[in-house]
Amino acid sequence: MRTITLLASALLSSTASCGPAGGGGPRSDAGGDAPVIVDASPDAVGADAGMNLVGGCSPAALSACRYGPAAPTRSSSRVVELSYTDVTNAARTIRVALHEPAGLTGPTPVVVWSHGGADGSMNAAASGAEWAEVFTAAGYLSMHIAHTGRTAAERSALCQRLGYDAAACATFKYLSWDRPHDVRRVLDWVEEQARGPMGARIDVRRIAYAGHSAGAGAALVVAGATRDIAGTQRALPDPRPVAFVSCSPQGPDEEGFIEASFGGVTRPHLTLSGVGDDTDGVPSESRRRPFELVGPGNKYRLWITEDSARHTTFDFSTDACVQFRMRAGQDVARCRDYLPWLSSTMVAFLDANLRDSAAARAWLASDNAAVLSGRVAEWSRR
């Protein structure tokens, strides 16, 4: 069991963004958990003095560097089952956890989330559960997909339909195909609900799609990146999301992507990763590259330069970080510090693109993220 859940609950009051009514912005209160430790020497303060900072952010006032509300929004959750006919002409069913903020007073932006892993899942409640707390605390309705696995027979049928031979089928990551189609069904459901029972609570014009690891790759594909499917670079975009987040994405020469794959990503996109994000056979340096290769304009990357920010750190979990630092004889409390950096960046990006928040745009255009991290995280824009 992940240890992050209680920790995330404790941090949300100081890490997420605006509530259901919007209007979030940089924090200016002194509450929340213990501040991140930074070098506050005169030289360091002088270096930050020349940076673009908003909301009273400084090395001496780190809580003001965060983007988030003083009080998070409570939420409720339920799981729905959705079905559609896949490319093999077979019925495919997925489970989706719907996390809804309490007290909604009008149409609410939606975040759709895809989990990582090459294999499928039946547990929607565990799909991005820690990020779900961040999203709903910020007043977003979030939908977290459990991308159902395939039996051997179902996998064989998919391979035959797509043109894989038996040898290639043995290594084909079938969820690379299924995830974009599962997302399409979820977006169809969102539109159905907006015309019916949830019409007053869903804003179908303001949808973001995000994911971790393999889910990050899916976010890139739905945003317009191409990927090798049976020897051909295939595009599987969906026009409905207006913004995308890739936590620990794959880069060129990884899992079907090439350098030319990413140019088709022209909508707003945020990458979260770092030097310690090198698991699952994908080197961390590869995860830097999508930001540099996607189409310019409204693109952002937070890159943590400490090894202890591990792969699952970007799934908003401290577990792998704690294990890494324990083996190294290092203080595990450091693992908590990464969470406000990630949640502030995530929610500011969402607010800027789903709520057209001027405060969020100012935060993204500032160097608050770098100062908040004590310059351990690189903050890049293009």
| Name of the CATH architecture | 3-Layer(aba) Sandwich
Share in β-strands: 15-25%
The sequence of SSEs as H and E is: HHEEEHEHHHEHEEEEHEHHHHE
Give the N-terminus to C-terminus distance in angstroms. Answer: 38 Å
Helix content: 25-40%
- What value does the Rg take, in angstroms? 20 Å
Major beta-sheet overview: 9 strands, mixed
Reading off the top of the CATH hierarchy, the class is best stated as Alpha Beta
> pLDDT below 50 for ≥5 consecutive residues: which ranges?
1-23, 28-47
Indicate the CATH topology: Rossmann fold
What does this structure look like?
With 382 residues, the protein is an alpha/beta fold. The protein has one domain: 3-Layer(aba) Sandwich (Rossmann fold). The chain has a nine-stranded mixed β-sheet with strand order 1-2-4-3-5-8-9-10-11, sandwiched between helices. It has a two-stranded antiparallel sheet with strand order 6-7.
